[in-house]
Amino acid sequence: MSTRPPSPTRRLLLRATVGALAFGPWLSAAQARTTVNLATAPIGRMDLPWWRKRFEASLRQVRHSQPELVWLGDSITQNWERGGPQPWADYQPVWQQEYGRYRPLNLGFIGDTTSSVLWRLDHGQVQGISPKVLILLIGANNLGRPHWGAHLTVPGIEAVVDKVHQLLPHTHVLLLGVLPSKRSAWISAETLKINAALAQRYAQSARVRFVDVGHVLLSASGQPDPQLYLEGHAPHQTVLLHPDAQGMERIAQAIAPVVDTLMQASP
């Protein structure tokens, strides 16, 4: 039986089908790579010995504590553990004065991004505890080396909030805005975008209180005040990122009324 050769149109369709079959998996993988937001993906840092050691120690600490209040975040949060010797680097008196009565727990890790916090939460970071309030301060490092802008970082912060709600359904979340810093014009602009988006996202939320306290760290000119940052106490510093003890005291005092209200509120 003879067969007619396929028409030009049919030949094109056949080629397109073969091409799709041959390259379909590659295209799907490429598309997946371009659509994954790493700021929302749990990424651990266990390859860093100091980070692994701190994480393992934090798990032991969590198992042996029943905190009413938890701070969760990056190095800005970890700095609550510092004890001087300089007055501007002595955070412990402020920590004890503001939070000591709540059996507080510090879960801050230097360099953490939203993805690092998500990984910690997925691996038992808050297992077995049920604090009344969790204060979340994260996002500054997203804008650093990863260079994740507001369009990536906002979903990352939202993912952390959602994970906290999943693991701690009876805990009130006090979400702080990304603090002002002096690093680059791009970072300053993205910080404003992040905080504006978070303020809108959680404006009507019954489970999350968003507070942007960045203004307490600004000078009269509207720029980060070097006298309120650790880096500002060193000569010839061009970067301002970590609030010093006085800066953190201002933050703690600014959010104190909200913390008190949430502590007294029913879950």
Description:
The model is unreliable at 1-32 (pLDDT under 50). The longest helix is centred in the first third of the chain and has 28 residues, at 8-35. The chain has helices at 8-35, 49-63, 75-78, 92-99, 114-122, 150-167, 185-201, 245-264; strands at 69-73, 105-108, 133-137, 172-176, 208-211. It has eight helices and five strands. It has two domains: 1-35, no CATH class; 41-264, Rossmann fold (3-Layer(aba) Sandwich). It has a five-stranded parallel beta sheet with strand order 2-1-3-4-5, with helices on both faces. The protein is 45% helix and 9% strand. It is globular, with a radius of gyration of 24 Å. Helix 4 runs parallel beside helix 8 and helix 5 packs parallel to helix 6. It has 267 residues and is of the alpha/beta class. Helix 6 links the parallel strand 3 and strand 4 (172-176).
Radius of gyration: 24 Å
Oligomeric status of the shown chains?
A: single chain
Which architecture of the largest domain does the CATH hierarchy give at level 2? 3-Layer(aba) Sandwich
Strand and helix order: HHEHHEHEHEHEH
Q: Main sheet: which strands, in order across?
A: 2-1-3-4-5
Largest sheet: 5 strands, parallel
Low-pLDDT parts are 1-32
What's the CATH topology label of the largest domain? Rossmann fold
The share of residues in extended strands comes to: 5-15%
Q: What sort of overall outline do the alpha carbons produce when their principal axes are compared?
A: globular
What class do helices, strands and sheet pairing give? Answer: alpha/beta
Number of separate domains: 2
